[in-house]
Q: What sequence folds into this?
């Protein structure tokens, strides 16, 4: 494939050759159609967008499959409803893929910075949910707001968080595979 030569046909081939396989591999783990579609789409777009800088030595499919796997793992880590399978996935990861403590601290600093910039009520709901591990109902009772308002604050905070650290995830991913 002529990815680095800005060949539009290469993008079409990339999509047609790999999309279904990548989607199925993500779906086997997540069982969430929309999330899997989003992950595969994002990975293929990132590969295409960064094609000039990429140095792929393992083969394009293997590279894309690894990128999808790590995005799936991140999605699982970020979603509490997938907590029961986190241990299984962590145990399946090769030891050489561990993010070292400096990268982990950088991610924690980015999240702390993001949280401090949230609107006050949104910030309070996020901290009660993520740091104190309170349920939506417990937060609603503590702050005298509805559970729907709690859900809305968390949805907003998590959406903004994803947008703000997506770039950082991709940089970490590139560092892991270089």
A:
């Amino acid at each position: 494939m002529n990815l680095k030569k800005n060949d539009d046909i290469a993008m079409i081939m990339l999509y047609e050759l790999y999309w279904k396989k990548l989607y199925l591999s993500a779906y086997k783990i997540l069982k969430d159609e929309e999330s899997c579609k989003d992950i595969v789409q994002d990975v293929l777009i990132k590969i295409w967008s960064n094609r000039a800088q990429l140095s792929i030595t393992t083969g394009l499919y293997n590279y894309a499959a690894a990128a999808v796997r790590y995005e799936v793992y991140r999605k699982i880590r970020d979603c509490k409803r997938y907590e029961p399978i986190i241990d299984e996935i962590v145990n399946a990861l090769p030891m050489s893929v561990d993010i070292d403590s400096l990268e982990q601290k950088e991610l924690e600093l980015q999240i702390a910075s993001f949280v401090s910039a949230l609107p006050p009520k949104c910030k309070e709901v996020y901290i009660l949910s993520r740091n104190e591990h309170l349920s939506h109902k417990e937060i609603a009772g503590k702050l005298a707001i509805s559970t729907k308002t709690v859900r809305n604050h968390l949805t907003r905070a998590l959406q903004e968080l994803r947008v703000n650290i997506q770039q950082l995830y991709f940089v970490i991913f590139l560092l892991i595979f270089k």
About this structure: The mean pLDDT is 77. The chain has two domains: 3-98, 101-162. The first helix runs from residue 8 to 30. The radius of gyration is 18 Å.
